Amino acid sequence: MNNIIAKEEAAPASDENVWNGSLRKMTLDDYDAVFELWDKTEYVSLNECDTRDGMAFYLKHNPDSCFVAEADGRIVGTVLCGHDGRRGFLRHLVIAKAYRNKGIGTQLVAQCLAVLSSKGVGKCNIFVNSENVRGLEFWKQAGWYMVDEEFVTMQSPTAPLTMPKAVASS
Ligand SMILES: CC(C)(COP(=O)(O)OP(=O)(O)OC[C@H]1O[C@@H](n2cnc3c(N)ncnc32)[C@H](O)[C@@H]1OP(=O)(O)O)[C@@H](O)C(=O)NCCC(=O)NCCS
């Protein structure tokens, strides 16, 4: 878990909060800037999939559905999107604090949903840390709903686990 809270203050929502940046597809060339943004943002869990190799693999499989937002000459927002043929999955929707409440997150999500829809994927899922109150509020305001509060996410490595020697011999 990487719950380091960035020191910048979030911009308050207001009608004057106009964003003059642009969105484009993410490429591996964006990796360093994207990782730096993720690393300093609250509620972003980083793991082996977020290494440069992991991102090369992800972007190769999802070349049309991962986006960055740019403003003032830098990357200020990201979203990763992929699908398994049934459901889409969004990850790492992150907006730099100084650029929040300008509609960037909403636009990034809309881009992803448009790509998924064009591919015939009818629904999209997002995993939200249950302590991420602002994140949950964002998704609910946007019309997303909890599928079933009784489901939990479980996970397994795809290859057998290697037991550490001390444990294996005991
Ligand atoms: C959650 C997060 C992605 C939202 O991004 P964002 O760019 O601030 O989202 P938006 O600006 O599109 O929407 C935020 C609010 O601003 C409002 N807004 C959008 N454009 C606006 C504008 N031009 N002027 C005023 N308000 C605006 C939206 O209606 C929305 O209102 P709400 O608070 O009632 O939902 C961002 O807070 C973030 O990066 N959080 C940390 C990481 C995180 O939690 N990610 C989600 C993980 S599941």
Can you tell me about this structure?
With 170 residues, this protein is of the alpha+beta class. The protein has helices at residues 31-39, 52-61, 104-118, 133-141, 165-168, and strands at residues 22-25, 67-71, 74-83, 87-95, 123-126. It has a single domain, classed as Aminopeptidase (3-Layer(aba) Sandwich). The protein has a five-stranded mixed beta sheet with strand order 1-2-3-4-5. Helix 3 (104-118) links the parallel strand 4 and strand 5 (123-126). The protein is globular, with a radius of gyration of 17 Å. The model is unreliable at 1-8 (pLDDT under 50). The structure holds coenzyme A. Coenzyme A binds at residues 13-15, 17-18, 41-43, 93-95, 100-106, 126, 128, 132, 134-135, 138, 141.
Layout of strands and helices, then pairs:
Layout: E1 22-25, H1 31-39, H2 52-61, E2 67-71, E3 74-83, E4 87-95, H3 104-118, E5 123-126, H4 133-141, H5 165-168
Parallel strand pairs: 4-5
Antiparallel strand pairs: 1-2, 2-3, 3-4
This protein binds coenzyme A (COA).
Hetero groups in this structure are:
coenzyme A
Largest β-sheet summary: 5 strands, mixed
- Runs in which pLDDT lies below 50 for 5 or more consecutive residues are 1-8
Strand order, largest beta sheet: 1-2-3-4-5
DSSP helical segment count = 5
The average pLDDT is 88
The CATH architecture category equals 3-Layer(aba) Sandwich
Shape designation: globular
From the N-terminal CA to the C-terminal CA, the straight-line distance is 30 Å
Whole-number radius of gyration? 17 Å
Number of domains: 1
Q: What name is given to the CATH topology?
A: Aminopeptidase
Structural class: alpha+beta
Assembly of the depicted chains: single chain
Count of β-strands: 5
Helix content: 25-40%
CATH class: Alpha Beta
The CATH H-level superfamily is: Gcn5-related N-acetyltransferase (GNAT)
